[in-house]
Amino acid sequence: MYFFITGLFLLPLIVSGLLLVLPGKISKRLVILTSFLLSALALYIFINTTAPLYFSVPGYVNEVVAGADILLLVYFGWVALRKKSGLVGILTVLQLAGLLYLLKTLPASHSMQFMVDKLSVFMFLLINVISGIIAVFSLRYIEEEACSAFRKKYFLSILFWFIGVMNLVVSSDNLEYFFLFFELTTLASFLLIGFRKDAVSVKNALTALWMNQVGGLAILAAIFFIAYNGYGEATFSNLLAHTAEKGILLPLALIAVAAISKGAQLPFSKWLLGAMVAPTPVSALLHSSTMVKIAPFIILRLSPALKDTPVAMVLIGLTGFVFIAAAVGALAQDNFKRILAHSTIALLALMIMMGAMGTPVTIVASLVLILFHGISKCMLFLNAGVLERVFHLKETSDMDRLGESGPFTSLVITLGFMSLLLPPFGAFIGKWLSIETLGALATEKKILGALVMVAIAGGGAVLSLLYFKVMGGLVSRSGEQDRVRFEKTGPIYSATIYILLGLVLAGMIGLPLLLTHYFAPVAAETGRQAVPVVTEGWNLYIASMRLPILPLLVAFFLLPVTVITALFIRFRKVDRAREYMCGEKLNYSFSSFYFSTDRATPYFYAAGVLFLASLILVALI
Amino acid sequence: MNDVLIPVILILLAPLLGGLLYGFERIVKARMQRRIGPPLLQPFYDFLKLAGKRRMMVHSAHAFLGIMHFVSLWFALAVLLLGGDLILVIFLHLLSTSLLILAGYSTRSIFSHLGANRAAISVLAYEPVLIILAVSIFMLNGTFDTAAVFTSSEPLLYKMPLAFIALLLVLPIKLKKSPFDVAEAHQEITGGVELEFSGLFYEAVYTAKWLDYVFCYTLVFLFAGSNILLGAGLLVFTFLYLNALDNSTARVSYKQMLRFSLGVAFSLAFINLLINSLT
Q1: Is A565 helix (H, G, I), strand (E, B) or coil?
Q2: CA-to-CA distance for A150 and A161, rounded, in angstroms?
Q3: Tens of pLDDT, residues A322-343
Q4: Is the ipTM of this complex over 0.90?
Q5: Taking CA atoms, what residue in B is nearest to A554?
Q6: By C-alpha distance, which of B62, B39, B59, B77 is closest to B207?
Q7: Do B113 and A590 touch (CB under 8 A)?
């Protein structure tokens, strides 16, 4: 098993190196082969992992990690100097000082640096399968990018490197190791966001860099306070062993800050929105399988310790606020990718909230959301890539002919949005579980619960309006085009999107099975409590939650099947009527309302900062 | 036996009941205006007339989505009447609404698009209120299942009167009654989404509206619990209230509607939730 797990760490890193030197044709095959191999490895490990695996690495690796930390920070310092970014500079100096201090004072002995439990393996599956699909998609996408041949190789190389680092992030137990990998994902995203090298890209890459550095700094501070409060080694398992002790509250709050910065929650949401300037596969990667998913991962990892602490309460409040704020912010957007980014932030908030609540059902809800949001968002972003490359569209208001010129893309985008919103899709099940458990929270936590409930109800409705707004422009066809012929977008594009669509649909059909055999065991080990899942007749019970299967089964025919059938069904012997124009001849733009909610944004940031401050404050008191 | 038999009969008869309700409503509304009004069965005469009309459509996808709107709405109603989970019911209703909205968007018709846009806005106006209502009910009953509400001997009305008022305020939006009939607005956008449906296909959208009546009045009936007399009283009251309101008010713009529903109805629902959680 160690062999396979190490393979998951090293294979992407080796491939990343190889891609830089190998000629184009071979590297193309290598990318596809590696993607398959990684998925297969992740699946194999998932099937064969029963108990958490702790393992240590030889002593010299500690030195390598410390060296890599310093090298990385030196590189950040160099970036700060070259781009004249004061913020990055200050944060790098702080990080370097903190790191050197910790290296000097803390004992260098480590017991076990890595831990691979069911949660890690769950993340392995998401990371490797989805990122693999994105890597294959990128093959074609990056070919059409206007840049040198070497930079194209370099792009693919960083993608794989990112996958390798992500695998390391989710399996490290030691916080010093975790810090390095955390910062390496920051570096990867910095390089990818700045890939196009224009002024905006460079600026947004720097924003992403400093915001994530805040997270890194918070982790260093957490390591310091764990030692300072006398808990010894800074590891996740050590923190979890001291659940319900006051001394770990501050480290928990600090690690939560790191999660918030990675997960682009307010006040750090700007970096993810700015990341849109990068080539689209990067957005797909950041949003679905890597980077931002570190946030719910950290919270889930710590959820037994976080549960019922004041820190968790502030986190729940913060994420409730972010959920509605991000949804409202999205209404003002026109750019397709920016809209997707806002919806990611909102749904991440829900995942983090569910993780912080830490009951069996909420952990299942969080996991369900992580997986299905990953698949749906990846599908939507890859379609954004197709829109950009094949149809040359970026703004939703320009997409009013897509229903005629690209019915397949329009269908998949519609299904993608619906999968985030409506029964019977997986992401809906996650949302449903969330709402129902929040009802329980409202009973226990009174005002906080009621406020969060309002945020979720309001934010959810705003998001549904948002999805309708986007779909509105996409699907219209004139009456002359009754017969629909799917457009050809090229084998790589359509293959990857078909696979994702298949995953969305299969996940929906297999949900009862997935809940019992996939999510429940992971949730039980993550939350350190039994997650009873029982199937009785047509009902599935998760703890006290009842999921009726029959209505969901019917909903499967009412939604995805209906929407797909609608494109192909032909009513014969029916005459045609032209659309009614009321005698007017005007050029009507077939797009939806515009809402200018931009004015609220500064207040959102201010509120985010307040929440952040109170997160630390409640831990101190 | 009765707790399955009655819902099943209700579900099967739902379009009929809704049609009768609509016919009666037209009479009551006419009497309020000192007109005689059409016969009670007028909606069914219309139904028969529509069936005989020449079949026309814009394109097949549009027509098909209209039919599926009817089917999915009937299903949402069935789950509600059979005592299903209230949150699921709300989202199944959203599913059926979104099929109609999608149908509206699927043509290149101006009015159909405007109507669909406004229908989407209406969702934003009423959905949060309904979800808060569902959660309030959960806090009182400990379950989201409506079956528990139908059999509860203590009517919800006495425990959460504010929530009932909030429901009354958003019902006109859901039923497209004045002053909140922006999504339909015959004089303005000629019926909105309905416009491009005709003949047999319009039948589906037309009868779906009857189902919506039954759906909304069932929500009202929830507030009476197992007290059938009170339930009947609430139904009559809501019926008269809706028609009086429809007759006496002028349409507001969608912005005003949104502001009112999120500002007043949603706040009422929230206060109700707070009271429920504190007591």
Answers
A1: helix
A2: 16
A3: 999 999 888 888 888 888 999 9
A4: no
A5: B75
A6: B77
A7: yes
Pairing of the two strands A533-536 and A539-542: antiparallel
**A57-103 pLDDT, tens digit each:** 887 888 888 889 899 999 999 988 888 888 888 898 898 898 888 88
Q: Rounded to 10 degrees, what is the CA torsion of A303, A427, B127, A418?
A: 160
Q: Is A127 a residue whose pLDDT tops 90?
A: yes
Report which of A407, A393, A273 is spatially closest to residue A340, judged by C-alpha positions. A273
What pLDDT score was predicted for residue B234? 92
If DSSP codes are grouped into helix, strand and coil, which group holds residue A210?
A: helix
Residues in A closer than 8 angstroms to B196, CB to CB, are 577, 579-580
Q: Are B87 and A435 in contact (CB < 8 Å)?
A: yes
Question: What's the N-to-C CA distance of chain A in angstroms?
Answer: 44
Mean pLDDT to the nearest integer, B145-174? 87
Q: What pairing do the DSSP bridges indicate for beta strands A114-116 and A53-55?
A: antiparallel
* The two structure tokens encoding residue A307: 């549960």
Report how many Cβ contacts below 8 Å link chain A to chain B.
Answer: 219
Q: Is B10 exposed, middle or buried (0-12, 13-18, 19+ CB in 10 A)?
A: middle
Q: Which of A142-151, B185-194, B233-242 has the highest mean pLDDT?
A: B233-242
Rg (CA), chain A: 24
Torsion of CA A217, A223, A227, A230, to 10 degrees: 110
Residues A252, A257, A258: CA angle, nearest 5 degrees: 95
* CB contacts, 8 Å: A565 with chain B: 64
Strand pairing of A575-576 and B56-57? parallel
Contact residues, chain B, for A468 at CB < 8 Å? 98, 101, 116-117, 120, 123
Give CA A449 to chain center in angstroms: 25
Identify the sign of the CA torsion A87, A93, A96, A100. negative
Furthest C-alpha separation in chain A: 84
Interface test with A, best of B53, B54, B59, B131 (most A CBs within 10 A): B59
List A115's β-bridge partners, or say none: A54
Q: Does residue A290 contact residue A391 with C-beta atoms inside 8 Å?
A: no
Return the bridge partners of A477, or none.
Answer: B107
Mean pLDDT of the A236-252 span: 83
Lookup result for tokens 């009614």: A580
Average pLDDT in the A435-443 region? Answer: 80
Any residues with CB less than 8 A from the CB of A518 and at least 6 apart, and which? none
Chain-wide mean pLDDT for chain A? 87
B1 has a pLDDT exceeding 50: no
β-partners of residue B85 are: B145
- Note the pLDDT tens digit of each residue in A549-595: 888 888 888 888 888 888 888 888 877 877 777 766 666 666 666 77
Q: Name A570's Cβ contacts closer than 8 Å, sequence gap at least 6.
A: A482, A483, B60
